[in-house]
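Sequence in, structure out.
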Amino acid sequence: MTNLMDYMDWRGDITLEQDGFNVIDALIMSQLSYVDFENVGPDAGNPVCIKDAVARCLKQYENPDEMLDSQELNEGQKTFIRMRKCDRYRNLKLVFYSQKFSEEKAMQFGAVTILLDDGSVVAAFRGTDGTITGWEEDFNLCYMMPVASQVEADKYLGCVMEKFAGKVYICGHSKGGNLAIYSTFHRSDEQIMRIGRIYSFDGPGFMKEVIESPEYERISPKIESYLPQSSIVGMIMYSGDDYNIVHSDAHGIMQHFVLSWNVIGKEFVPDEKLKDVSVVFNSACRKWIDGISPKERRLFIHIVFRILKAPNAGSFNEYSSNLIKTANSIIKSYGSLDKTTRRMIKRIVAQMIKMSRESISEHIDEKKKPQAGIKGAHGVK
């Protein structure tokens, strides 16, 4: 099946002036947020067009196209390389690049803005990278708001909307989708009117009280959420009533990577429904959040990541370099916890297992009931 790369091959010669901005463009531009532009210079006062930014970022490679199949580059970098050959994108300018990381604050943040030829702009927020700190911040969403990256996203969009007066599209993949939505919560009525769409691509949700808040209700008509049929990240916590299911060629958690998402024309290939694993995971996650106090969630997540950081690995890739040493370090760190803390962890894990079993049983019972019909796009209530 065809994907984002094929879309750029097919439609790369059609400019945005000839055929306007669409959801596939939004996903492609969300991938730019994963590129490190630190030494390229698309800051607030120095816009850089995409073709020049590619040349600067990849000058060490004799033939960047050969890197498209390389494991050295992430999906964002591969998308970026292909964009330089597309009339649709190559002359668009990048500006307001921001990248911040703090292990102390459990913050991993990145964003970039793309200037379109019609005067509108696209603010793209970065999702979770491979760092342990990035994943810790994701889990912190289960007991607190705002997390550090949400604060940065709010400031970032505020600056973009003050600088540029046109229409604004906001997008993000993974945690970036959550940031895209959160960044709009505190905008003025005039700024809300200027927002074209808010795109969340397999982004985690929010706690229930946030979804039911006036801030969320005010911007919900502008949100478009897209999930692969075996979504896991997008099933964390609570989301809005509607989402669109996209067919992916990958299996399981690998569907989170968007180069596996199928595209036809300028739309995604839809899928009829979520896989059982997504529905059960979402139910179990919500049961866990609703069944364990915020204080217990905070303490549990803090301790788990304290244990994960014991091997002094900065990313999950470093874990795989020496699995035996890593495992020994984690076991040793867990063993060093006091008895009360270990007892608390065992109790919460037991609760999580119990809730997961309940979710599986409920899902099996639900599937046995007569079905009135299947929708191509629906929400988790």
